[in-house]
Every structure is written in C-alpha cells, then in structure tokens.
Specification:
The chain is mainly α. Helix content is 61%, strand content 6%.
Length: 191
C-alpha cells in the first residue's frame, strides 16, 4: 500500500512482543539470555578488545535487574522498551547505571576515565581517525558537570550536564547500536 515508515512502526506492540518472544525462545531455549549470548548479539568475540568486552559486561549487568547473571524475557522486554521508546532522562539514568561500576550512586574520576576510555576505543575502532586525550576529556567533563566540586558526579549532576551541554552528551553517548539490532529483530522475527 506504499506506506512509509513512521514513528509508530517502531512501537513495541503486543504482536511485536510475541514475535520477540518467539525469537528469544528460539535463541535462548533455557528462557534466559546469558552474557556470552548477549556479547554475541553485539558482535563481541574473542577478537574484540578487552575494553569492548568489559563495556558489554557493564551493559549486560545494567539490564540484569535482579542480578542473577542472566536476562530473562521480562528484563529483555524492558531493555527493548528503553532502547526503542525510552525518554532521554531514562536513557541517561541507564547510562549512569552502566558507568557506575561500584554501584555507589556516584561517578568518580576513575569510573568516568574508564568509560571515556572504552567509548573512545570503540569510536577509534569504528573510525581510526578519532584521537583524543582521555585525561583532558575527563577533566572537562568534571569541570562542566560536577557542580558542587566534590570530585564525584551524582545522577542529578550527570543528567543535568548531559541535557544542557551537547559536548558532554557526545562524550558520554552509549553508541552500541542496540536500537538497530532490536529493530532488525522486529522486522525479521524468524531469522
């Protein structure tokens, strides 16, 4: 009928959830998505860098809300919803959770440096021309975001800084491509 793709095509409808469930059940017959399967979905192999692998482990842990070491279907649907339909604030909260490796509710310089290093390693992998000084980036992020100058970035400071400053948003952007993968799974549920 010549319809063009609209924003509603990306909605997670009941039919699409059923299709995702069939795909999930066929690829994860145990009913759970384990870390090695999760890494495979995003192209992380034994040839991937240590940083890429560690980054995906953090992403996996952020989706494993009950911390049982696997992603069940409900956690999977929540992840799909966040990636496809989540509001910017929800995505920033999720990013913060990925970055907060020790789970203490604040990002210290070591955590920010670690995540910026991983993000830039991934950016260099995709575009070898990318070169940046990680220390300088980390210092600038803290200068722009750490409002109370306590050498820690709270969730509130993180959200406010990312929303107000496009440079900060670009530096902290999680660019792992899950939206494309989930959309592709919706288009080809039997592949």
């Amino acid at each position: 009928m010549g319809q063009t793709q609209s924003a509603t095509d990306k909605e997670v409808t009941l039919k699409k959830i059923q299709e995702l469930y069939r795909k999930f059940a066929s690829e994860c017959p145990s009913g759970n998505l384990h870390l090695h399967e999760f890494k495979k979905i995003f192209g992380i192999t034994s040839n991937s860098t240590e940083e890429e692998s560690a980054f995906m482990e953090n992403v996996f842990r952020s989706f494993d809300t009950n911390k049982d070491g696997k992603i069940d279907f409900m956690e999977y649907v929540a992840a799909v919803h966040l990636v496809l339909r989540g509001k910017l604030e929800d995505k920033l909260k999720w990013s913060f959770k990925v970055y907060d490796r020790d789970g203490n509710g604040c990002l210290d310089r070591q955590e920010v440096r670690h995540i910026v290093k991983i993000i830039y390693k991934l950016k260099r992998h995709n575009d070898p021309g990318v070169t940046e000084n990680i220390g300088d980036i980390c210092d600038r992020i803290f200068e722009l975001v750490d409002k109370n100058k306590d050498s820690q970035i709270s969730l509130e400071e993180f959200i406010e800084g990312a929303e107000k400053d496009p440079w900060v948003m670009e530096q902290l952007k999680l660019d792992i491509g899950p939206c494309d993968w989930f959309t592709q799974q919706q288009k080809n549920p039997d592949s």
